[in-house]
Amino acid sequence: MSSFDTGYTLVPADDVLTADQQLGAALSGLVPTANPDVPRPLGRGWAMDSETGELVMRGNAPAEVSGVDQLMVWMEKTLRTARLAHPIYSDSYGADNPFGEVGFQFTPGLAGILIKRITDALLVHDRITAVKDFIFNGAPDDEVLLVNFTVVLDEETEIPFSHTVGARSS
Known about the structure:
By secondary structure, the protein is an alpha+beta fold. It has helices at 19-27, 68-80, 108-122, and strands at 44-46, 57-58, 61-62, 64-66, 130-137, 145-152, 158-165.
């Protein structure tokens, strides 16, 4: 009688792997190893209208954005989301009390609060290294305040950004 090798064994091998080791072996060819010299891509997502907070549609589907455009959508959404208000986000995502000072007269003290709040919210992103050059525009009787600033990704990439405080609630 001849034997036929099925490629399977009914008896486990002597060096049985744990479930974690099996998962690690299965993912080893699928998950790229992190190389600190290569920055992670900025990703892709959907375009949002910063005035309305609605998705921008292209036909029947949301318009896609990627790279720096996606990062700008992420920044706008982050600054309009109250930290710890939504359980679907991590505890570090969002801004602390993003609309708490709406209706107050703009003062240098308020500027300092907003600079800290914006900087803390955006530095959560692993590609943002600094937030600088804040300029505030608005009259004391305005219901909104425009904040212009620069977001620094690395030595070569700086992104100018505008954020309106008080345009709508989160």
